[in-house]
Specification:
The complex is a heterodimer of chains A (297) and B (326).
Chain A (H helix, E strand, L loop, with lengths): L15 H11 L1 H18 L1 H4 L37 H36 L2 H15 L3 H12 L3 H28 L2 H9 L3 H37 L11 H7 L9 H28 L5
Helix pairs in contact in A: 1-11, 2-4, 2-11, 4-5, 4-7, 4-9, 5-7, 6-7, 7-9, 9-10, 9-11, 10-11
Chain B lengths: L1 H29 L2 H7 L10 H13 L13 H36 L4 H15 L2 H15 L22 H7 L5 H39 L2 H8 L4 H22 L1 H16 L4 H11 L2 H29 L7
Helix pairs in contact in B: 1-13, 4-5, 4-8, 4-11, 5-8, 6-8, 6-11, 7-8, 8-10, 8-11, 10-13, 11-12, 12-13
The chains are: A mainly alpha (297), B mainly alpha (326).
């Protein structure tokens, strides 16, 4: 019979991802935020199955019903109703899809564009590199709202244009960051060694450098995602994003502005939803960067 | 030093040129009717080459020929210049507030590092960074203005005061005009200003507090601080002369990045608080379909962002010699 017991006590060194996860779990605030965000994402994804009513259905004799925990609230309408008798909970669930979905799309689009620009400026020819860096600097200063305003004025207000504007505004953040990270990594000796092995810089960027950058890219992605949620909501609030028949959280909030004094919950609850989501994302981002670099904190 | 100044100015000019080029191309793609009003005011050159058209567009922009409002047919540039001081006043006070409070909060958090105070400052800065500014503005208005009745809901000054706009900056005009109850007027102005400025300052404040804290922690670990402590220099002096100044110089680029966010916040804040500035006008013009007005104010805001960014770059090069790369 084979004796599998070890004579030498071997210390098991966890991989970088396992180590980061271990550090992350120790951070209670970030763990709670992660669970919170997962719940919110689940609610958004499953919203068509979960909504109690059709979000656009106007319940008769149920105008401006207070949330169920307040006096005069009706348990049938958890978050109350708006001025047209529509169930706020259903509308917020459906709005979560739009806000989080378009923010996610904007983040992914800007990540891919940023990857292209970052790699191009880090290893590309000098002229192209300078050109694109200048271009990104120019965009970096321009807020997404101005881009969205221009797009809306010229092509009309749709959620697509709002998402596009946010994606354009976020691209230079990714591009700049990836450029800088690549420059730092390219100067390190292991890249030189890898180049001796496979003399193809493009392949090495993907095979040996990028695995080292995943963590920091994830941090940047969380940061950009939180900005994207806030910007999409702000654009919706100003009427530059989602349309009135399928409102996102920002639009939902602006629709009931006239009733803010008699029905504050129609404004407070959607705003609270945005706030909690963004807070969760930011806490996860912070926890992630602490987990990846525990000595710095 | 001068090399840096010239470099920054030239890069600002390049930025402005490329931004106008992008906007021009967007205008061409959209091909709206009101486009002709701005681009081809004097010269109906629709069949010339794209380069000539861009040159005409640029000449019009530089000459201040920004077209006429499609609502009241007023020249856009004049309206923009009349509205911009209100926006600058609001943004200036918000920036001042954010810098002061952010600096203090960041320093206090560093002094009491790893204590409850530090945790509290960090948490508040997280909350401030995550709050949607339009919602925050509405909530503060609901609570402070409507429920408590402490500040007015909208506008820049009470109806009782009649102040002729000379410079457009209310706080300057008060002294230029002959107002009988001057102190009352100033009080009214600050009363109107405090809430929008506070709302606008929230996000930059959180970022400044966090940046300063991180920079201070990094600097305080350096050898020259340790040697200063060893020589028995007082803590206040070390913090003020050796740490905070360096931290400020080091964080300048991050503050400069906030200008764009500040302009975006100003547009939203003005809309909520009915602050009669460029941002509110921009959103109103957009809803009215007044395209030349939208175009004019967008261009103006972008120009302002670029100019202030270059000024800040030059300033940080003056403060921090390490940024003077040639």
């Amino acid at each position: 019979m084979l004796n599998k017991s070890n004579i030498y006590i071997q210390e098991k060194i966890p991989g970088p991802i396992a180590e980061a996860w271990h550090n992350f779990r120790k951070n209670i605030l970030a763990s709670v935020a992660l669970i919170g965000l997962l719940v919110i994402i689940f609610l958004a994804l499953a919203s068509p199955l979960l909504v109690p009513y059709d979000p656009n259905f106007q319940h008769e004799n149920a105008y401006l019903v207070q949330p169920s925990w307040m006096e005069g609230g009706n348990p049938a309408f958890i978050f109350g109703t708006d001025d047209l008798g529509r169930d706020l909970f259903s509308r917020m669930l459906m709005g979560a899809r739009l806000t989080l979905g378009s923010a996610f799309i904007a983040t992914v689009v800007s990540l891919s564009l940023g990857l292209v620009l970052g790699i191009l400026t880090a290893i590309g020819p000098r002229l192209i590199s300078t050109l694109f860096l200048r271009f990104m600097d120019m965009l970096l200063a321009t807020p997404s709202l101005l881009i969205a305003i221009l797009l809306t004025a010229l092509f009309g207000a749709t959620l697509f244009h709002a998402t596009l504007a946010v994606a354009i505004a976020l691209t230079p953040h990714f591009g700049r960051n990836i450029h800088q990270l690549l420059e730092e990594e390219l100067a390190k000796p292991y890249v030189e060694a890898a180049l001796l092995d496979v003399p193809n810089i493009f392949r090495n960027v993907f095979r040996s450098i990028f695995p080292n950058l995943f963590g920091r890219l994830a941090v940047q992605m969380m940061l950009s995602f939180s900005i994207a949620v806030l910007d999409i909501a702000a654009l919706g609030f100003l009427g530059l994003g989602a349309s009135a028949d399928s409102p996102d959280w920002g639009r939902l909030l602006s629709e009931s502005l006239d009733y803010i004094q008699i029905a504050p919950w129609t404004v407070t609850l959607p705003g609270l939803a945005i706030f909690v989501t963004v807070l969760c994302i930011n806490l996860i981002g912070q926890g992630l960067s602490q987990a990846l670099d525990p000595e710095k904190y | 030093m001068w090399v840096v100044v010239i470099k920054k100015i030239s890069s600002a000019i390049i930025s402005i040129l490329s931004i106008t080029l992008v906007i021009f191309l967007l205008l061409k793609t959209a091909n709206t009717q009101s486009l002709d009003a701005i681009l081809l005011n004097d010269n109906p050159l629709s069949d010339t080459s794209l380069i000539t058209q861009y040159r005409n567009y640029l000449t019009n922009i530089i000459n201040g020929n920004w077209g006429y409002s499609s609502i009241n047919n007023q020249p856009i540039l004049q309206e923009v210049i009349a509205l911009i001081p209100a926006t600058i006043e609001l943004t200036f006070f918000a920036t001042l507030m954010a810098l002061l409070i952010g600096l203090i909060a960041g320093t206090v958090a560093t002094i009491f590092r790893h204590t409850f105070i530090d945790f509290f400052v960090l948490l508040i800065s997280f909350v401030g960074y995550s709050v949607p500014i339009f919602w925050w503005g509405l909530i503060t208005m609901l609570v402070i203005s409507l429920d408590w009745g402490l500040t007015p809901v909208s506008g820049r000054i009470g109806f009782l005061f009649d102040i002729e706009p000379i410079t457009g900056f209310m706080l300057v005009d008060v002294f230029l005009n002959d107002v009988s109850n001057r102190w009352e007027a100033i009080k009214s102005i600050f009363n109107h200003l405090i809430l929008p400025a506070m709302v606008l300052a929230t996000v930059p404040l959180s970022i400044i507090a966090r940046t300063i804290r991180a920079a201070l922690i990094e600097i305080l670990q350096k050898d020259h601080i340790l040697s200063a402590f060893a020589r028995g220099i007082s803590g206040v002096k070390i913090y003020w002369i050796h740490a905070i100044r360096n931290a400020l110089a080091q964080s300048m680029p991050i503050f400069a990045m906030q200008i764009g966010a500040l302009v975006m916040g100003a547009i939203i804040t003005e809309t909520i608080f009915s602050w009669p500035g460029l941002g509110k006008w921009l959103i109103e013009s957009l809803n009215r379909g007044d395209f030349p007005a939208v175009h004019g104010s967008t261009i103006m805001l972008i120009f302002i962002i670029i100019v202030i960014n270059s000024l800040l770059d030059i300033a940080s090069a003056i403060i921090n010699p390490r940024l003077r790369k040639f």
